[in-house]
Design goal:
Length: 140
Amino acid sequence: MFKPIAILSLAVVAAGCMTYMGNESYAAQPPSQLERDERRLAQLLGNKVPGPPQSCIQGYQADRMSTIGDDIILFRASSNLVFRNDIPGGCPMSGSSRRLQRRSIGSNICRGEPMQVVDNQTGAYFGTCILGDFVPDRRR
C-alpha cells in the first residue's frame, strides 16, 4: 500500500518540476499581438516624419488602406505619404477576413466619419468606427 502512494507522490513532484521548467522559457515564446502590431506599424511608416493633424483627406488618398490592430488605420496616398488615423475608442477589426467600408459619398474623408466593419466572407456587420484626425507621415 505504501509503494503506490510513494510512486504517485514522486510522479506529482516530477510533473510539477517539468511544468516549472517549461515556464522559464518566456523569451522563447512568440511575440504578442501588440508587439507584432508595433513592428508592422514601424515597417509601414519606415522613416517617415509626422506632420500636423488634418481633419480631412481627399478620397483618392484613401484608396489603399491598412489596419494595425483595432485602433489604427493607415491610408497610403503614395510611397512618400501615409496618413495615420488613430480611431478614438478602437474598432473591432480583429479577424482575418474583416474590412472597413465607407458609407458616405463625397470627395473627402473627414474626422468623425463612420466606417463600417464588415466580414468579407459572410457580409456580417461587426460595428462602426468613427475616424479621428489624419496625421500625415512624409518621407524625409
